[in-house]
Amino acid sequence: HVDDGGECTTVAVDRSGRVDPAAYAGQLRPDTAVASLQSANHEVGTVQPVDEVAAACRDRGIPLHVDAAQSLGRTDIPGGWDLLTASARKWGGPVGVGLLVVRGGTRWRSPWPEDEHEGGRFPGPVALPTALAAAASLEARAGERRAEASRLSALIDHLRAELPRRVPDVELLGDPVDRLPHLLAFSCLYVAGEALMTELDRAGFSVSSGSSCSSSALEPSHVLVAMGVLTHGNVRVSLHGDVTEDQVGQFLDVLPPIVAALRRTAGAESL
After folding, report:
1. How far apart are alpha carbons 128 and 102 in whole angstroms?
2. How high is the mean pLDDT of the chain?
3. Are residues 67 and 48 in contact, defined by beta-carbon separation less than 8 angstroms?
4. Which end of the chain is more exposed for a tag (fewer CB within 10 A), N or C?
5. Active site (annotated) includes residue 213
6. Residue 211 has pLDDT above 80, yes or no
7. CB within 8 A of 150, min separation 6: which ones?
């Protein structure tokens, strides 16, 4: 859109990664074509004020798109949106299946070439087996979602409590309470994120660093920069349904010596 000469307005976030609903509403203009907001941030897990933003958009007749990729299948999705997108692999469904929900009465034009399939919404026949697999996996996840969310959230709470105690100069990121149940992001001062990610991988723990949408770039996360928080030694932990309490304990055991070793190597040990 911007490359074609259009305009895009970005709304600032606070240190927890949350937008202020009043500030968001203040950026809406009479010529705003569509507003967009994550249901929860992909990197730090902070839940966004979708209901309040949706109300402001509705008052102005502006359709709201909600990115629910990290939330659908894990938490309740707030109402009020006009368009919703999600990814099946995030809830344990087949890779490569995306979900676009367009509420009735919402103006929407497909960006793809139109043919006789799907009422002009998508060209070519839909891959029915993968669509059914996505629906079945989402239905299965719904049956176990609350119990799994409670268990994983308790593990994240344990990590949030123990990390500052075991690792000096660590900053926990995102809202500690109003957050997704399975995500934790933190940053360690005096440590390179890619080095920390590599050493944890050698120890048997797969984590991410940098931006969640382009982690291979190993650049400071634009999300963390926007939040104004520490970007050095950034680690993003995403717990899946098979993670055990013992594995979380092992992670807490191996992380402190890894951080200490990297700081010694860098000649920047914590004071």
Report:
1. 19
2. 91
3. no
4. C
5. yes
6. no
7. 181
